[in-house]
Amino acid sequence: MNSFLKDLQKRGIEKMLEGELDSHLGYQKGKKSKAQNARNGYGTKKIKTSYGESEIKMPRDRDASFNPMLIPKRSSMVDGIENVIVSLYAKGMSNSDIEEQIREVYNFDISTSTISRITDQITNDIVAWQNRPLEPVYLIVWMDGIVFKVRENSKVVNKTVYIAVGLRRDGKKEVLGLWLGKNESAAFWMSVLTDMKARGVEDLLITATDNLNGFTDTIKNVFPESKTQICVVHQIRNACRYVVWKDKKAFTKDMKNIYNAPTKQAAEAALEDFANKWNDKYSYAIKSWRDNWEELTVFFEFPIEIRKIIYTTNLIENLNGKIRKYTKNKLSFPTDQAVMKSVYLSVREATKKWSMPIRNWGIILNQFLTIYNQRVRL
Predict the structure, then answer these.
(1) Do residues 151 and 163 lie in contact, with contact meaning Cβ atoms separated by under 8 Å?
(2) What is the pLDDT of residues 272-287, one digit of tens each?
(3) Which residues fall within 8 angstroms of residue 136, CB to CB, at 6 or more apart?
(4) With a threshold of 0.85, does the pTM exceed it?
(5) DSSP state, 133?
């Protein structure tokens, strides 16, 4: 059966190449033409497809200007295989793993250098995607960084990929960009926000971030009207960092009363109860809540439906988790380009299902219109 399908595919490809040559020459085979260029017999070419390796008849023209789209010159692979290679790379497989997989499944050999060349073609896509125009208004933008190990000057150093995800006015999520820099800092986030503004963003209604020092001021410098919510999940992690194991369950349960309170006033009362119980043991945790209180409680200004999607950066953390899943086999990256290529492909894979508006979008949009009126700019 496989042999029959392989032969059927071979004949189909040859027919498609004949059709491409007809279009290139401007007349069909068997008909006369006054054109200077004409058919010039056939050559043979070995190609690789999902059914293995085949030898096909390749139609030629006299002036050698025919370069078919199906199998371009200097290429021996039908596009479907290249897409498979890119997909396997996006899911975290190394070049040598892909080489082995292709050999086992498709029954032909492909070198790791060829695999690298195929995935390197993504670089132009990254540049175009990274410089695409953005919408003028985003209702919410989540921002976070994810650290990778990259080889630089014979050493392995930590570098951060900065990620921004926006909630558009149609209720759909969009990754606004990826930026590579050194350790996460408010100064680099300034360049990220400036880049977003240069690409057309005029207003961010709400931003959700971690509690990086100076981050809120950085956002205000570029988008002065934006409301900034510090991620409660980050705050909980930071507060629990030095809590002993036997206290952790009770400690986190008491913290839950703060961010699950119905109003800001109720949250303040819960914080006081929390402080009275734990301040002697974990004063630094109480201090971190109080120091960041105004930015931790921005979500109380909004209705319940909006609160659920802004008081935590869970959305972007879920995306980060998928990126980590797809890149976990790569302990370090040889170049900056390699890490960006891998993260871009991971993002592309992870966001394939981002085609629908978020849940309860009609209600949420009406709430945004009520609160922000003109700034939503539908």
Answers:
(1) no
(2) 999 999 999 999 989 9
(3) 200, 201, 202, 203, 377
(4) no
(5) -
Q: Which long-range contacts link 256-260 to residues 24+ away (Cβ below 8 Å)?
A: 258/289, 259/232, 259/296, 259/311
Q: Does residue 52 come out as left (phi exceeding 0), alpha (psi in the -120 to 50 range) or beta?
A: left
DSSP codes, 30-99: TS----S--EEEEEEEEEEETTEEEEEEEEEETTS----SSS-TT--B-HHHHHHHHHHHHTT--HHHHH
Question: Running DSSP on this structure, what letter comes out for residue 131?
Answer: T
Tokens 């369950």, residue located: 249
pLDDT digits (tens, 9 = 90+) for 327-372: 887 778 888 988 898 899 889 888 988 889 988 899 999 999 999 9
How far is it, in rounded angstroms, from Cα 354 to Cα 338?
25
Do residues 116 and 86 touch, judged by C-beta distance below 8 A? no
Lookup result for tokens 């700034």: 375
The Cβ-side half-sphere exposure at 86, using a 13 Å CA radius, reads 19
Determine whether 178 is exposed, middle or buried from the number of CB atoms within 10 Å of its CB (0-12, 13-18, 19+).
Answer: buried
Q: What is the DSSP string of 250-312?
A: HHHHHHHHHHT-SSHHHHHHHHHHHHHHHTTT-HHHHHHHHHTHHHHSGGGGS-HHHHHHHS-
Kindly give the interhelix angle for 283-291 and 232-240, rounded to the nearest 10 degrees: 160
DSSP code of 144? E
